[in-house]
Amino acid sequence: MEKSVMKILHVSPECAPLAKKGGLGDVAYALPKALRKNGVDARVLIPAWPGVLDAARDLGALRSRPFATISVALDWRALSAKLWRATIDELPIYILENDRLFSNTDIYPEETNAESAEPMIFLSYAAFELAAAAHWKPLILHAHDWPAAMIPSALRHHRHYSSMAGDYDTVYTIHNMAHQGLFSPECLDGWGIKPESFVPMSAGSLEFYGRVNLMKGAIDNAEAITTVSPRYSWDIQTKEGGFGLDGVMSENKRKLRGILNGIDCDVWNPKRDRLLPANFDASELEGKKICRAAVMKRFAWEDDGRPLLVFVGRLTEQKGVDIMLGALSELPKESVYVLIIGSGSEYYGGRVAEFAAAHAENVRTVTGFSEEKAHLAYAAGDLLLMPSLFEPCGLSQLIALAYGTIPVARATGGLCDTVIDADGTEEGNGFLFADYSAEELRGAIKRAAEAMRDPARWERIIKNAMSRDSSWNIPAKEYAALYREIVESE
Are 104 and 119 in contact (CB under 8 A)? Predict the structure, then answer.
């Protein structure tokens, strides 16, 4: 089959730059865009959460009016959404507008129940209705994480959509095993799912210890499963990384692949980044010094040359905030500057605020997410702190490497696939530690600081980092090959 006719629909609750809560938003935009450059007709389907249509209009990407209506039966009633089409960087994005369904500014529900699941189930079923409305029919539906996990299962168990099983193949990508989509079995009838879907140990069953597990169903029913890094594909088959589904993953390992995420180099490129006060590349690093000077001025620091440590990400347990604060509290205040940019739970946000107040001389924080400050932090930093408890892939370390900011990271998941310890080889581009502890992190920071004292060695580490190809070019080719393999196997 010719690459040019391979049609793929990515179904995701978020897609940058229109809706983004985390790394999935970046992937749902950058991967299809890269696929199109590789001859695949990839498109995206997302909900119109508050602000999505306005963002598309601001980009001049939206058609003047919706061009169709999509209707789905849920809870024994018909629900409808207006269908819009936006085009950003030549990537078609279909947007579902229903103000009642898609009213959550946070995208993801705080509690999983029949009502809170409705937007995600509608999104999943809308993928089957899109072909008639858009006059474009994909060969493969590529579902992302638990919000789109019903897609593979519906083709097997839905009262109506199971009749379309021969029309579509499915790929399911796990971005984070910790969020599986657990619901009461009473939800199934309103979702149009047949009772036999909940029989324990039956083929493609959604049953999981008495509850509905959407991720489990997708793993069993999809033609292929991918994770966002090779190491994470192994991690999720272990008791520690599988979050209860390690046995299910092991049973399905024949169709599991770990394909490392990339970054959008149109957005994250220090040589062309318009949000920076100066640009730079591996051959000319003067602009990085100018970016550091801008941070020093903005946060009222008098630069004495000490290492600038940055953290950019969600303030959650997964990201290692506990051990990060523990390690930093034991470092002399005069030894480092620390810039923390992120948002998260009220608990961790409070802890970071308290820490910053107690270390006002050398710690600054930016609560919430600021695109401009994040770009500046990646460009200005000496070290990126990424002490994750677990990390499916991680985008922060990929961005940091591209900007010559050296990761100090825990050896887990995708961090193992991308960061090479500089104390182990001259090809190193970062510093890794194994145990999840403040003491181990502090030791890795000290090793990095010691390397900085040798200018020639430090420049080599920076150039190693910046020479790594973190683009979507290679991953997109791997996904395109997977799609062709699925279609040609029939």
Answer: yes
What pLDDT is recorded for position 2? 42
130-158 pLDDT, tens per residue? 999 999 999 999 999 999 999 999 999 99
Q: Pseudo-torsion of CA 234, 406, 395, 255, nearest 10°?
A: -20
Residue 183 and residue 214 in contact, taking contact as beta carbons nearer than 8 Å: yes
Residue 368 has pLDDT above 60, yes or no: yes
Backbone φ, ψ for residue 98 (5° rounding): -150, 105
| Tokens encoding 448 | 């990095």
Quick one: pLDDT at residue 9? 98
At 312, give phi and psi (nearest 5°): -130, 110
- Say if residue 152 is preceded by a cis peptide, omega within 30 of 0: no
Name residues whose C-beta falls within 8 Å of residue 135's C-beta, 6 or more positions apart in sequence: none
Place 388 in a pLDDT band, splitting at 50, 70 and 90: very high
pLDDT tops 80 at residue 3: no
- Token pair of 338 as six digits: 């620390």
Angle 214-221/150-157 helices, nearest 10 degrees?
Answer: 70
Place of tokens 């594909």: 233
Assign residue 123 a region (left: φ > 0; alpha: ψ between -120 and 50; beta: otherwise): alpha
Q: What is the pTM of this model?
A: 0.93
Rg (CA), the chain: 23
DSSP secondary structure of 146-198: GGGTHHHHHHHHBTTGGGGTTT-EEEEEES-TT---EE-TTHHHHTTB-GGGG
Q: What angle do CA 232, 197, 207 make, to 5 degrees?
A: 50
DSSP code, position 386: E
Within 10 Å of residue 489's Cβ, how many Cβ atoms?
A: 8
Q: Minimal CA–CA distance to 329: which of 409, 434, 439?
A: 439
